[in-house]
């Protein structure tokens, strides 16, 4: 039965029971560039109790170092890069550890997505190619569908990664599709979130772009590296030892965060600052606890 956190005694019980706290970020810690209420104090409380904090995000638009910078700007300190696992890093790790793509054969990975993906791939020693690279190579009037044959470098590409791209356009999708017409080219999706919270609304997530590419190329991704998929947990375990019965997954989405915890035998806490409702929280068996906001951990502890 899902339990709502409403008392100081429940918070004390949480602090006694769990040693590691996994946090989704967007919709839990912050929305856009705004830190949610009492989150900083909650992090400080958990650190004072020697809890391990790990930030687990499906957002591939930023690198792990970008996350540390953002946390520091919010006044949340003493977080190192091993405590950040996002879908960009998980994707790069999958390509390195599972696909075992060569880093020395001169091949490149085509990326439809933001710089977070290319940064993490480059950090692991992979070369990448993006539409932005093409804009530096070709005059603007040559970046057209009529010239698409000259914009394709099939001999240079050995993998395609698709994630959230704020500047997606028809030509970008068309180029991506050309590479995926070769079934030997791995198709990796960073994550398949349909939306993400932004200010007082929702915007299309990476899943909306992945769906376009899937439909156009008639291909399913060979791997999806974000929550709730196992690749994300594998990436966490590379740098962090978890005792699952002493770990709590905190998130704002049932189909990713809560499912991720449940699939990995980890207790879950749903916060209602993202896209879910109290009614849904009460009707889901995969949720251990729920509360209005992450900051309730601090607010109720006083």
TrEMBL record:
Its EC number is 3.1.3.41. It catalyses: 4-nitrophenyl phosphate + H2O = 4-nitrophenol + phosphate + H(+). It comes from the Eukaryota. Keywords: Hydrolase, Magnesium, Metal-binding. InterPro entries: HAD-like_sf (IPR036412), HAD-SF_hydro_IIA (IPR006357), HAD_sf (IPR023214), PGP_euk (IPR006349). The active site is at residues 24, 26. Divalent metal ions. Mg(2+) is the most effective. One of its GO terms (cellular component) is cytoplasm. One of its GO terms (molecular function) is phosphoglycolate phosphatase activity. Its cofactor is Mg(2+). SUPFAM superfamilies: HAD-like. Gene3D superfamilies: HAD superfamily/HAD-like. The keyword Transferase does not apply. Mg(2+) binds at residues 24, 26, 252. Substrate binds at residues 57-59, 227. PANTHER family: 4-NITROPHENYLPHOSPHATASE-RELATED, HALOACID DEHALOGENASE-LIKE HYDROLASE DOMAIN-CONTAINING PROTEIN 2. NCBIfam families: HAD-SF-IIA, PGP_euk. This is 4-nitrophenylphosphatase.
């Amino acid at each position: 039965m899902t339990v709502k956190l409403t008392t100081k005694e429940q918070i004390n019980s949480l602090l006694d029971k769990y040693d590691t706290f996994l946090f989704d970020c967007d919709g839990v810690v912050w929305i856009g560039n705004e830190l949610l209420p009492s989150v900083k104090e909650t992090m400080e409380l958990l650190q004072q109790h020697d809890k391990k904090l790990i930030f687990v995000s499906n957002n591939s638009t930023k690198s792990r170092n970008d996350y540390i910078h953002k946390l520091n700007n919010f006044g949340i300190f003493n977080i190192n890069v091993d405590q950040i696992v996002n879908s960009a890093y998980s994707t790069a790790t999958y390509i390195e550890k599972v696909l075992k793509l060569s880093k020395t054969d001169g091949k490149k990975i085509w990326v439809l997505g933001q710089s977070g993906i290319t940064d993490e791939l480059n950090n692991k020693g992979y070369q990448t190619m993006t539409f932005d690279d093409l804009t530096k190579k070709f005059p603007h009037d040559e970046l057209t569908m009529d010239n698409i044959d000259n914009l394709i470098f099939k001999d240079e590409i050995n993998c395609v990664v698709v994630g959230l791209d704020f500047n997606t356009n028809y030509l970008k999708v068309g180029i991506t599709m050309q590479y995926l017409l070769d079934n030997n080219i791995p198709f990796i999706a960073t994550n398949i979130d349909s939306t993400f919270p932004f200010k007082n609304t929702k915007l299309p997530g990476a899943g909306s772009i992945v769906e376009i590419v899937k439909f156009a190329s008639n291909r399913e991704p060979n791997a999806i590296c974000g929550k709730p998929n196992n690749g994300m947990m594998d990436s966490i375990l590379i740098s962090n030892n978890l005792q699952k019965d002493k770990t709590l997954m905190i998130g704002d989405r049932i189909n990713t965060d809560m499912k991720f915890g449940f699939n990995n035998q980890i207790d879950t806490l749903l916060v209602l600052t993202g896209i879910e409702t109290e009614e849904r929280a009460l009707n889901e068996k995969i949720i251990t606890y729920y509360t209005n906001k992450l900051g309730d951990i601090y607010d109720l502890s006083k």
